[in-house]
Specification:
Arp2/3 complex 21 kDa subunit ARPC3; 171 residues; 73% helix; globular; mainly alpha; 6 helices; single chain
C-alpha cells in the first residue's frame, strides 16, 4: 500500500468535499434534504477492493476519522468505525466481487454508502438531539448513496490510473 498516495488523495478529496459539496455548490436538494456524495467513503471502498483486509481497515479508519474531523463535525469516531468496518468486510469479500465492471462499481458504491450512511445519520441525529427523524435519515442516506454511486466509476478510474502510474516498472 502506498500510504503517501492515500494521504494525498484523502487531502484532495477532503478539499473537494468541503469546497464544492458542503458549500452546496454541487449539492442537490431533494425533499428538503441536501444530497452530496461521500468521496472519502468511495476512496475507502476503492482501497478495500485493492488492498489486504488489515490495510483496508486502517485506511478506512483514517478516512473515516478525516470525515469526522472535517465533513460532518459530529461525534468523533462514528464515521471512523463505520468506514473501517465497511472497508474490512468489502476487502474480505473482494474475491467474489467483479470490481472492474462499471455496473458493479456503481452497485457496490450504492450499497456500501447506503449501509454506512443510514446508521451514521441515525447515530448523528440520536447523539446530537436533532429534530430530524428517521425519514430524514433514510432520504439522506439514499440520496447520498445515489450521488456517490454516480461518481464512483470516475473516481475509481482516476485512483486506478494514479496507482498504476506510480507503480515501479516490471522487469
Amino acid at each position: 500500500m502506498r500510504w503517501l498516495l492515500v494521504a494525498i488523495f484523502a487531502y484532495l478529496l477532503v478539499a473537494i468535499q468541503t469546497t464544492l459539496f458542503d458549500t452546496r455548490l454541487l449539492a442537490f436538494q431533494v425533499f428538503g434534504v441536501w444530497i452530496k456524495p461521500d468521496l472519502l467513503l468511495l476512496m475507502a471502498l476503492f482501497i478495500a477492493l485493492t488492498a489486504e483486509p488489515a490495510e483496508a481497515f486502517i485506511a478506512g479508519w483514517g478516512l473515516g476519522l478525516a470525515e469526522d474531523l472535517t465533513v460532518h463535525l459530529g461525534p468523533l469516531g462514528v464515521a471512523a468505525l463505520l468506514f473501517a468496518a465497511a472497508a474490512y468486510l468489502v476487502s474480505l469479500a473482494r474475491t467474489v466481487l467483479p470490481a472492474r465492471r462499471i455496473l458493479a462499481q456503481v452497485l457496490m458504491a450504492l450499497g456500501v454508502v447506503f449501509i454506512v450512511r443510514l446508521p451514521h445519520q441515525l447515530l448523528l441525529f440520536w447523539l446530537t438531539d436533532s429534530p430530524a427523524g428517521p425519514l430524514y435519515a433514510l432520504i439522506k442516506a439514499l440520496g447520498d448513496a445515489g450521488y456517490s454511486a454516480l461518481l464512483a466509476p470516475y473516481l475509481f478510474w482516476v485512483l486506478r490510473r494514479t496507482v498504476a502510474a506510480s507503480a515501479p516498472p516490471r522487469r
